Amino acid sequence: MPELWNDLLDCLDLRPYPPDTDDPAVAVFEGSNQKLDYHRLFGGQILGQFLQAARLTCPSKGVKSMHALFAREGRADEPVRYEVTTQHDGRSFATVAVVARQSERVVATAAISLHCGEDGPEHQSVSTVPAVLPGEFRVHLDLLPWETRAAADLNATAAATPDFEFWMRTPEVDGELAQALTAYATDLNLIGTALRPLRGLSQLGNGTAFTSAVTSHSLWFHRPLRTDRWLFFRQHSPLLAHGRCFGRGDVLTEDGNLVASYAQEALLRIHP
After folding, report:
1. Are 179 and 58 in contact (CB under 8 A)?
2. What is the tens place of the pLDDT at every residue in 9-40?
3. How far apart, in whole angstroms, are the C-alpha atoms of residue 35 and residue 142?
4. Kindly report the CA angle at 248 between 195 and 219, in degrees rounded to 5?
5. Which residue would you say has higher pLDDT here, 211 or 207?
């Protein structure tokens, strides 16, 4: 587990890469890939690297939203280049477009909006956050190299409601990585949540009982957050139809503050 954690941190440490244009609005970064026993790049890695590329391009602002489209599978044996075009960088807001490439292939694209934090009235309307689950509910959620706790089992094959909640807390880490690490975590188990009503299936059947691939992922950051403090993920999948599933979720702090929300659509073909 420590090796996977350090590997992820290395992947989020993007390197400047020479652009093939003289346009000052374009910046290029390169990111390493995780060393996983996985048949393609994990989408969470790309989401985290998208956010790091935007943050490096507009360091005076924080990301408020990201809308990503996944064009094709990424190859694990080639670094990913992130071509960032600044469309607007004002006093309060900035907007960038990012293209993730391997060779000449577009792997994914993202539209990212950034904002300088402002003071003002606050209001939220969300369900109460339960107490952090005790240690006996600690679970292993594949690809998350930090502590996670959940009452439900996403690997169970009994039919259940399309809901899943879990707690997570990373090792102590620089707060500037919080958005990228949160984005990484949101990509992991919405497909597994969508599968829960189907008796006899679980997320372990990917590639055998079903085929899945994320096609789009959106994420909104509402407040500053840290991942080395407990975060509560509450997610629900309202729809599985026409070979696609849709899910959404909220991220809340232990004291109940809504800090982020996310939504995802994915290909989900059940094998006959």
Report:
1. no
2. 999 999 999 988 888 899 999 999 999 887 68
3. 14
4. 135
5. 211
Domain 1-117: homologous superfamily in CATH = Hotdog Thioesterase (3.10.129.10)
Instruction: Give the SS3 label for residue 56.
Output: helix
**131-272, which class in CATH?**
alpha beta
CA distance 204 to 142: 10
CB 146 within 8 A of CB 168: yes
Which single residue is written with the structure tokens 């934090």?
117
Tell me the whole-structure pTM to 2 decimals: 0.96
Beta bridge mates, 82: 29, 100
**pLDDT, tens digit (0-9, with 9 covering 90-100), for 71-108:** 999 999 999 999 999 999 999 999 999 999 999 899 99
Exposure of 238 by Cβ count < 10 A (0-12 exposed, 13-18 middle, 19+ buried)? exposed
Helix (H, G, I), strand (E, B) or coil at 243: coil
Instruction: Please give the backbone phi and psi of residue 136, each rounded to the nearest 5 degrees, phi first.
Output: -70, -10
So where are the chain's domains? 1-117, 131-272
Domains 1-117 and 131-272 share a fold: yes
Q: The dihedral of CA 232, 226, 203, 156: what is its sign? A: negative
What is the DSSP track for 174-240? -GGGHHHHHHHHHTSSHHHHHHTTSTT--GGGBTTTEEEEEEEEEEEE-S---TTS-EEEEEEEEEE
For the chain, where are the E strands, in sequence order?
15-17, 26-31, 62-70, 80-89, 93-102, 105-115, 138-139, 147-149, 163-169, 210-221, 231-241, 244-253, 258-270
